Each structure stands twice: as C-alpha cells, then as structure tokens.
Amino acid sequence: xxxxxxxxxxxxxxxxxxxxxxxxxxxxxxxxxxxxxxxxxxxxxxxxxxxxxxxxxxxxxxxxxxxxxxxxxxxxxxxxxxxxxxxxxxxxxxxxxxxxxxxxxxxxxxxxxxxxxxxxxxxxxxxxxxxxxxxxxxxxxxxxxxxxxxxxxxxxxxxxxxxxxxx
Length: 167
Known about the structure:
By secondary structure, the protein is mainly alpha-helical. The chain has one domain. The chain has helices at residues 2-8, 62-76, 99-110, 117-128, 141-162; strands spanning 23-27, 33-39. Strand 1 and strand 2 (33-39) form a beta hairpin. Helix 3 packs antiparallel against helix 4 (117-128). The two termini are 22 Å apart.
C-alpha cells in the first residue's frame, strides 16, 4: 500500500481522500491472503470527485494520513472509528472533524507495543506526517524521497523478513 500511495498520488486511481474501502486484498484458493494489495476504483463518466471532497485541515497530507490509518486498522484488526472514546467527540457526543486524528494519534502512540519497530515508526511518520521536510506533498522530490526512505523501505524490510527473504 505504501508504494502504491507513492506511485498513484496525483492520479485518478488514488483520490486525495481515501480509506481502506478503496483497497482490495485478494485471497488464494486456500483462503490465505495474497502478498499484495490492489486499488479498487470505479470511474463514472464525468465524475469530478475533487469538487465533492473537503480538505481535512487537521492533516498535512491526507493521502499519507490515510495510509497511516490503514496501517493502524490492519494492526488493530478493526476500523479506526471503532476505537472512539468520549474525548474524541464534542460536548454533545458527536463526531467532529478532528475525531479521526485524535483516535489515530492515540493508537499510533501505542502501536510500538504490538508491532515491530519498522512498522510502528512508519505508522507514526504517516499519522504525524513527520518527514523533516518543508513541504508535505508528493510534488516535492525531497518529500517523496523521505516518504520512500521512512515508510516504504521499512515496511518492505518487515515484509521481506516475515517472508524469509530478508536478512
């Protein structure tokens, strides 16, 4: 998923605002998951999705934040909103624009207790968009490089290790 975010950003295949419903993970005949995730996207004629999506002012890069959320959901095995607590809501108990960020921050802070260091650090970088760059968009080559080094590479190392192909 991380490399797909890097490769597909700015294309119709990956909208600015996406979530795990846009990702398809296939199973083989025995029911085991295949080692890849695919973007599931339907294109409607004359569809202008950008006009219908409001920018989330609480995140520096919505696609990177969405990846962090997806990684959290995979690690915890549940949708992000299933972890709502009272502090994530407004005084009337309603979801507010910062609810997802509040939940993601809380779960990301604890992810190191349940996932390997590379995975946990990649999640934290995505949720906080912490790449030590002035810009936080994929149009910036330094940001793309830091994203690759800080998210794609560590996750690939974990994958390789888990499958016996890494050191």
